[in-house]
Design a protein that fits this description.
Blueprint lengths: L1 E9 L6 H42 L8 H50 L3 H28 L16 H36 L5 E9 L10
Antiparallel strand pairs: 1-2
Helix pairs in contact: 1-2, 2-3, 3-4
Length: about 220
């Protein structure tokens, strides 16, 4: 005869400090993301102010200057003009980055009380959303830079005889390196999220089975 006994045991509840720790991490991350996004949104205004001040400081081409001084003034003016034209093209990039930073900060701040209260499912979804906003917006911004103003002004390099392929190579290398760094940083963020998700997985019942055999042999030898 074979009998089985089943014992239902419950796993210990996961520590809530995993979620609380993630809440603290998200609060700190959101503070920096919010500050960075806000400053980035203000940067185009600073660019306009600086451009006006620099242009007024340079003034007009001096008429009584020597030819060398005029050449120097023209060279400086061309460099500044090229720089501010490049910064003008950067405004859309700055707006994208600033809005994304503020949006990530907003979602991150909302996730803090959710995580702290122990709402695992909603909290992890909100953190994943914040990280996704950060990843996708930065990828979009890098692609915009590559296809638009580029990663640096050309400063008339082509007119100076520099092969245009050199600037294309610089932009391509910058794009690849920036995206690689972006992916590495976000892999760390999503790894932290995956760790917290695994460590806070709800406990379930565990069945412990035990069995024993009772063998009863009956020998009836009646002689």
């Amino acid at each position: 005869m074979q009998e089985h006994s089943v014992a239902i045991m419950k796993e210990p509840e996961p520590s809530q400090w995993w979620l609380k720790g993630l809440a603290i991490f998200m609060f700190i991350t959101s503070v920096f993301a919010g500050i960075g996004g806000f400053v980035t949104l203000l940067t185009p205004m600073f660019i306009d102010l600086i451009s006006e001040e620099v242009q007024s400081a340079i003034g007009e081409l001096p008429e009584n200057a020597t030819q060398s001084e005029k050449d120097e003034w023209i060279e400086e003016d061309e460099i500044l003009t090229e720089t501010f034209e490049y910064m003008e093209g950067m405004k859309a990039f700055l707006v994208i980055s600033g809005v994304a930073g503020c949006l990530m900060a907003l979602v991150g701040f909302f996730s803090v009380p959710v995580l702290w209260s122990g709402d695992r499912n909603l909290g992890i979804k909100m953190v994943a959303g914040a990280f996704s906003i950060n990843l996708l917006s930065n990828l979009g911004a890098q692609i915009y830079l590559f296809s638009g103003p580029g990663f640096m002004p050309d400063y008339g390099f082509e007119e100076a005889g520099l092969d245009p392929a050199v600037m294309d190579s610089i932009n391509t290398i910058s794009l690849v390196s920036n995206i690689a760094g972006l992916i590495c940083c976000n892999l760390v963020l999503f790894s932290i999220l995956a760790l917290v998700a695994s460590q806070t997985k709800p406990a379930g019942p565990v069945e412990l089975k035990s069995g024993f055999h009772i063998n009863n042999f009956e020998n009836s030898d009646n002689k």
